[in-house]
Amino acid sequence: MRLKLYWLREYIIKDSIKQRKEKQLNTDIMNIAERNTNFIDRDKLYNLIEGKAPNQAEIDTILNKAAKLKGLSLEEVAVLLRIEDPIQIHQIMETAKYAKESIYGKRLVIFAPIYTGNVCVNNCTYCSFRKDNRLIKRKILTMDEIAQETSALLKQGHKRALLICGENDFNGTDYMVEAIRTTYAVKERDGRDYMRRINVELAPMDVPDFMKLKQEKIGTYVCFQETYDEIL
Hints:
Layout: H1 2-35, H2 42-49, H3 56-67, H4 74-81, H5 86-104, E1 112-117, H6 143-155, E2 160-165, H7 173-185, E3 197-201, H8 207-214, E4 221-222
Parallel strand pairs: 1-2, 2-3, 3-4
């Protein structure tokens, strides 16, 4: 009885902590949205890249910090980006390798893409989904088709998927929520094979849509901002 009460107490505490973290995250998201400020300080970035090349002592200090897995500041990263010496660049690569293997180990994670649709309102020159491309047939998958794609990937041994689509009104957040649920629901080999993790690569969203997405137990949300700064 005491053991059951102990585990119940631990569960309640963990659940309470989780709820507080989620509440704080939602508050932070709303605060950022309300401020509607540009979080990229271009002038600051311009100044950082114009600095002089660092000496070996500065490089060693930054790389030693990185090797302790404490993370680097924007200023420290900018210092490393100013390095041109091949030997010093090799030092950076070795430290990055150490940090990666310390955190993730010597493993390679593979995911398979599920393209739910190639209809897009954008016209990015390099992308075959661009709206002016007349050489492809446009298609948005039904839930049955998504289930079939998922089943085929599971039979090939995949356990992680990336749902990806063009930006348009036909496959918005509600569509993607249903697609995520459909993908997670597919089982093979008497339920032993299923997607352990689903990542999504979607168009920009507003706060309410992000909140919907958060409830669907996705692994990672990716939004590529296809732009660049000529100076940077």
